Amino acid sequence: MSTTPDPRAEYRRRLRNRQTTVIGGTLAAMALLVVLSLMVWTGVLPVPLDPGFSSASDDATPVVQPCPPANAVTVEVTSFPVNVYNGTDTAGLAGVVADALSDAGIVVSNTSDWPKGAYTGEVQLTTSESGLVNAYSLARIFTGTVVVQIDENQDPADATVSVVLGEEYSESILSAGEISMLRAGEAISAPSGCASPSASSQG
User: Fold this and answer.
1) How many CA atoms lie within 13 A of 27 on its CB side?
2) What is the C-alpha to C-alpha distance for residues 173 and 90, in angstroms, rounded to an integer?
3) Pairing outcome for strands 82-86 and 146-150
4) Cα(172)–Cα(122) distance, integer angstroms
5) Are 163 and 123 contacting, i.e. CB atoms less than 8 angstroms apart?
6) According to the model, what pLDDT value does residue 12 have?
7) What are the residues whose beta carbons fall under 8 Å from the beta carbon of 187, sequence distance 6 or more?
8) Rounded distance, CA 111 to CA 108, Å?
């Protein structure tokens, strides 16, 4: 005589089997993830997904600056006009720097936002080839990273220097008293890897 299975007991048995299967599968998956994570962390396996991020230094193309004229020496920073442009989102930055330059006796001709939009560096000085000595002389008033570039749209005879303040700028400028102590006639050192003005403007 056969015994009819208890439906409730059968249900509980199936439920236990299902739970065992689910829990076992979950634990196995977690163990696999832990093993894979350890292998990636120790370098055994490469990172499965490369988000494509890289540091600025990896992506940045080195800026080639124009070489100053041979045997060039500095001139008085008050002897030529200067424009100040804001290449950041900080409102009024160009005006603040322009005031500092004016306090030092430097003639500021124009103050506005940089027409080319945002500048990601610290300070960029642009001028014509005839204004390179002026630009390298003016570069001394900034304590941070300064890049000199040729402005192809500037009249070759115009020796005005434009100061472009970038996102990395952080009050890196000498005081009026310190600027007044800068002397003319000091040798201008060519930046490393500089190129002739014509070559740098074409690059």
Assistant:
1) 6
2) 17
3) unpaired
4) 9
5) yes
6) 67
7) 71, 72, 73, 74
8) 8
Number of Cβ within 10 Å of residue 172's Cβ equals 15
Q: What is the pTM of this model?
A: 0.69
Instruction: For residue 131, give both structure tokens.
Output: 């204004």
| Residue that is written with structure tokens 């002397």 in the block | 183
> For 134-186, how does the pLDDT look when each residue is reduced to its tens digit (9 = 90+)?
999 999 999 999 999 999 999 999 999 999 999 999 989 999 999 999 999 99
Neighbour tally for 99: CB within 10 Å: 15
Residues 6+ apart with CB under 8 A from 59: none
Rounded CA-CA distance 55/93 in Å is: 27
Residue type, 123: V
Ordered DSSP codes for the chain: -PPPPPHHHHHHHHHHHHHHHHHHHHHHHHHHHHHHHHHHHTTSS--S-------HHHHPPPPPPBPPPTT-B---TTSS-EEEEE-SS-TTHHHHHHHHHHHTT--EEEEEE-TT----SSEEEEE-GGGHHHHHHHGGGBSS-EEEEE-TTS-TT---EEEEE-TT--S-B--HHHHHT--TTPBPPPPTT-B-HHHHHH-
Question: Model confidence at 191, in pLDDT bands (50, 70, 90)?
Answer: very high
